[in-house]
Amino acid sequence: xxxxxxxxxxxxEENILKQELPCFVWEDRIQRGETKVVGDYVSxxxxxxxxxxxxxxxxxxxxxxxxILSPHILSGYGGKTIQSYGTSHAMHVWESDWNNxxxxxxxxxxxxxxxxxxxxxxxxxxxxxxxxxxxxxxxxVIDSFSLTYx
Length: 150
Description:
This protein is 25% helix and 19% strand. The chain has helices spanning 4-20, 118-138, and strands spanning 25-27, 36-42, 48-54, 65-70, 93-94, 102-104.
């Protein structure tokens, strides 16, 4: 179970999410370490993706993890999968640690603070997807598209 302090924080996050990104839904909000927010994003290029944010048991003091659930395999430029990069600063991804989903780097861990909201994290995921699509078109690494996360 989440602590009372964490439940207050999650309720705040839920209210912000309803206002800013109402297409995202909560899953398993009771069990600490299993709570997720999942939603669909359609890129500026018209491609559909499913994004998932997983809350760690020490949230908000520990950074949440961000994944692309679908398409399950992301094929980049020349057909090379994003999963094949493992952990890559140039591609802003981490080695997959959950069902081979692409795990996005949305913030440097040393920059994470409890003041950041999940809307910020999800927006960084959307920004990453736009960079991914530019990578697919040009072959340039995702980092070259000025992904600046705060």
